[in-house]
Structures are given as structure tokens and as C-alpha cells.
UniProtKB/TrEMBL annotation:
InterPro entries: Methyltransf_25, SAM-dependent_MTases_sf. One of its GO terms (biological process) is methylation. This is Class I SAM-dependent methyltransferase. It holds the Pfam family Methyltransf_25. Residues 59-157 form the Methyltransferase domain. GO terms for molecular function: 2-polyprenyl-6-hydroxyphenol methylase activity; 3-demethylubiquinol 3-O-methyltransferase activity.
């Protein structure tokens, strides 16, 4: 029998993210000064897999403070829209867009729940719908997400997802070598860890969060069921942060297991298109 989803999951998660926005904006992790000066927030494999976005419209679901969204604009997207359920995050993203001299016609940000995106965003469809790392774990219903995201993909366009591999949530935090959690778990995971990944020592009050694990097969099946054609599913042996103590940081900025350790997927990416 599954544990029920807490009724306050949405308000709980939003309070947590609202509190962390100013911490993230001031952190070395996000380094907004470097971003304003031209630093790219996108990963090399994302740029290669998405391809040239010049002249294309792009919607970024669950955009947080908008660095990835604005980076796509820098790479030539004609019109980018970022959506997030945190008002402070959206305000920070709008401020960053202004700092970069981008008009609202080039870069717009909307405060709304991802499940309400079809009604909240300014256009009915986009050439590219993008979701970055660490987004899907905050959603209880992946089929509803897939239906919403798919509905916003223009004919001839595609959805691109880059995510942390759910297998990583099944392994022990110290070494990443032992299976200690059920990969197929459907119960919500309630955490109360203070601080934030961008500043582990930050003093925080809203520390409760509710998250879910979505197996890769569940995500891909939901996208196919929503009417999109799966172009590829790629698994990557690198992570964006030291998920386990055993990971080493490489010159390219990614974290990987030592060469004498068997590799496992730490991230994955999916491209799913809508026929023209």
C-alpha cells in the first residue's frame, strides 16, 4: 500500500524554494556576476543534443531563477519563456533579463504551476520545450506533466529533458555502491534537511520538502502516451554535483566515479518530437 501524498505538498515545496531564491542569487554556486558577464549556464551535452536554436521559440518549464532560460536566448532563440511556481524566482529571472538588456519580447517569465502551463504561458506552442536538471522530482504526477508539456510542443518541434538518473536515488549516499532504496518506489519522500545545495551552511527555516522518484521508463512511456515520438534516450556517466563521496571532479566540471570503479548512469536526457 502506498503512502498518501501530503495535502500540503505544493505549499510546502513552494515555501522552501521561495526562501532559497535570495540565497541562490547571492551564492558562488550560481555566480550571477559571472553570468551577467557572459558565463554560459548550459551543459555541453545539452547544447549538442538540442542543437541550434537560432530563430526558434523556447519554453523552459520549472526555470527557477532563469539562468538556463536566458542562456538559450544568448544562443540565439528568438523568444524564450521561463515558467516557475516561485514568485521570487520569477522576479529574480526578470531582473536578470533586464540586466542583460533583453526585452520582454525576447525573454518573458511567468509565475505559475507547471501543471497550469498551457493556460499561463503567452503562446500556445513552442519550437522547443525544455526542462533542466532537478525538476521532475518535485512533481507527483508524471503523466499529467507529460500531457501538459506535450501540448505545448509545436508541430515539427520537440521536448528536451535533461535529468538526474533516478538510479542515483537507490544507492547509498556515501559510496554509491550499494542498493539501499527501492528503484520503483511510488511513495513521496519527505525531507527536512536545512540549507541548500548552493550553500550547505545557509540558515533556513522552511526545510521540509516533498519529492518523488520517477523511473526512466515511466518518464519515456508518459511522453509516448502523450503523443510525442521518442527520438533518443541517452544515459550519461557524469553528474553536475558530488552526489556521492566517491565521485571525483574532472577538468570538464563534471563528477564521475574513479576509473577503477564500474560506471553507472548518473544523468539521462530525452528528446521527444511532435510530427510536423
Amino acid at each position: 500500500m502506498y503512502s498518501p501524498t501530503p495535502e500540503d505538498w505544493h505549499e510546502t515545496n513552494r515555501a522552501r524554494w521561495d526562501e532559497r531564491v535570495p540565497i541562490h542569487a547571492a551564492s558562488e554556486f550560481y555566480d550571477l556576476d559571472a553570468f551577467r558577464a557572459g558565463k554560459d549556464a548550459l551543459r555541453d551535452f545539452e547544447l549538442a543534443e538540442v542543437g541550434d536554436v537560432t530563430g526558434r521559440s523556447l519554453l523552459h518549464l520549472q526555470c527557477h531563477i532563469g539562468l538556463d532560460t536566458l542562456s538559450w536566448a544568448r544562443h540565439g532563440a528568438s523568444h524564450v519563456v521561463g515558467l516557475d511556481f516561485s514568485e521570487p524566482a520569477v522576479e529574480t529571472a526578470r531582473s536578470l533579463a533586464a540586466d542583460l538588456g533583453l526585452s520582454q519580447e525576447r525573454a518573458a517569465f511567468v509565475a505559475a504551476d507547471v501543471y497550469d502551463a498551457a493556460e499561463a504561458v503567452p503562446d500556445r506552442s513552442y519550437d522547443v520545450v525544455y526542462t533542466g536538471s532537478g525538476a521532475l522530482c518535485w512533481l507527483p504526477d508524471i503523466e499529467r506533466w507529460a500531457e501538459t508539456a506535450a501540448s505545448l510542443v509545436a508541430p515539427g518541434g520537440f521536448l528536451y529533458v535533461a535529468e538526474f538518473h533516478p538510479l542515483t536515488d537507490s544507492l547509498d549516499d556515501e559510496t554509491g555502491s550499494r542498493v539501499v532504496h527501492d528503484y520503483f518506489v511510488r511513495d513521496p519522500w519527505v525531507d527536512t534537511t536545512p540549507g541548500t545545495y548552493a550553500d550547505l551552511d545557509a540558515v533556513t527555516v522552511h526545510n521540509r520538502s516533498v519529492e518523488w522518484v520517477h523511473p526512466v521508463g515511466e518518464v519515456v512511456t508518459a511522453l509516448a502516451k502523450a503523443g510525442l515520438r521518442i527520438e533518443f534516450l541517452h544515459e550519461h556517466d557524469a553528474s553536475l554535483f558530488p552526489r556521492y563521496g566517491a565521485l571525483d571532479r574532472h577538468e570538464d566540471g563534471y563528477y564521475r566515479f574513479p576509473a577503477d570503479r564500474p560506471r553507472i548512469p548518473l544523468m539521462y536526457s530525452v528528446k521527444a518530437s511532435r510530427p510536423a
